[in-house]
Amino acid sequence: MAARCRLAARFHHIHGANIRLDASHTQATRVESFANGLCFSQEPLAPGQIFLVEIEEKELGWCGHLRVGLTAHDPQSLEVVPEYSLPDLVNMGNTWVFAITRNHNRVVVEGEEVAPQGRPWEPFLLIERVRIPRDTLVGRSRPSRYSHILDDLYKMNVLPATARRSRIGVLYAPQPDGTADMHIVINGEDMGPSARGLPTTRPLYAVIDVFASTKSVRVIPVDYGFPSLQTLCRLVIQKHIVHRLAIDGLDLPPLLKSFCQHE
What we know:
Elements: H1 2-8, E1 19-21, E2 27-30, E3 38-40, E4 51-58, E5 67-71, H2 85-91, E6 95-99, E7 124-127, E8 130-133, H3 134-137, H4 147-156, E9 167-174, E10 179-186, E11 189-199, E12 205-209, E13 214-220, H5 229-239, H6 254-262
Antiparallel strand pairs: 1-2, 2-13, 3-12, 4-9, 4-13, 5-6, 5-12, 7-8, 9-10, 10-11
């Protein structure tokens, strides 16, 4: 699982015509227009594995936002990458895509109770039997005088889902009947089953459509094991400061300072 997670935490070399990937294949930027921004995970996802991206750059003047989902189509099997995930890729079948909006992303299934989300400071997000470290799932503001206020807003998921630095992920959770439910996670909060009945017998790739006002996204790797020493250090340091600008005055190695301020 760990090896596959590292491979999947990159974008596939097959992508839309207007997408440019950085050298590490972890950042995708749409360089023109508002469409032809389709991206895929480099590898199929494992059950319960989240493909997480952070919105890095927005572009004014377009209507619509990031679209996220799963597809059973191997990107290399596509003769032409579709212009849009919705409806083009979805119309090819075996594809499930969810359009992220500013405010209305939670899925409420009629006749079912909404599962309790847990408190935002709890260390893990639980989605059925899947347990994901919450810390990585939550976006963080750029270091500034108001970072401590903005970071709390990300943790409470009260900012628009489409805001810069928001983190949005997709995963599938296997069900007893042999199918799977697709879940979208926004800043550490599960939005519920946005699609059901997905086949678990076929490889499922993450779909990220860098659409319209979303211009650039970055893949965020998720560590499913115990937190690294670096992460534990960051959590302790951030707990004892008012805001992240104060980290500049601490007697710490430069790399650790940067990690504490930006990650």
